[in-house]
Design a protein that fits this description.
The protein is an alpha+beta fold. Helix content is 16%, strand content 32%. Strands 6-5-4-7-8 form a five-stranded antiparallel beta sheet. Strands 2-1-3 form a three-stranded antiparallel beta sheet, covered by helices on one side. The protein binds zinc ion.
Length: 157
């Protein structure tokens, strides 16, 4: 299998997008969010009426109930807000619980207090992870498509 290039990913059909990111749920409300992943860009939902930013993507603004909601890219910089070490869990692509606990971090993004994104963190032994550490976004390949992960900021420099 060859790795698709950026042009191939940009032209991906909705059906291919749904299949590429399964078991994550790609639907009408989240397609723009996941198309950002194809472009290696983390996007958050943004209300065009009041400017509120939020995740996960939803069709209605939780602050003002406007349905005028789009997406905007964020820097991917933030700090670890919550860290979970999964010793077991459902089968997932790229996850091998036998290799050791799989880290899942919720990161508070620098754009706004309370704006948080959850994924895994790579490049650091799980024993060295701690709440409050600065992280930056990076991308790994999973199922032939880009998948967002965090790295400790000091390691990414
Ligand atoms: Zn709003």
């Amino acid at each position: 299998m060859t790795t698709p290039g950026p042009a191939d990913l940009a032209g991906m059909t909705d059906l291919d997008l749904v299949q590429a990111y399964a078991p994550l749920v790609v639907d009408r409300d989240t397609a723009a969010f996941y198309r950002g992943w194809l472009a290696r860009e983390l996007r958050v939902a943004r209300c065009d009426s009041c400017g509120h930013t939020f995740l996960p993507p939803r069709p209605v603004c939780p602050a003002c109930w406007s349905e005028d909601v789009g997406t905007v890219p964020v820097s991917g910089r933030g700090t670890i807000f919550l860290c979970m070490l999964l010793h077991q869990g459902p089968p997932a692509p790229g996850v091998d619980y036998a290799e050791g606990p799989y880290p899942v971090v919720t990161v508070e993004l620098e754009e706004r207090p309370g704006l948080r994104f959850t994924t895994t963190v790579v490049g650091t032994p799980v024993a060295d992870l701690a709440i409050g550490q600065p992280v930056t976004l990076d991308w790994i390949d999973r199922n032939g498509v880009p998948f967002p992960v965090f790295r400790l900021a000091e390691d990414a420099a």
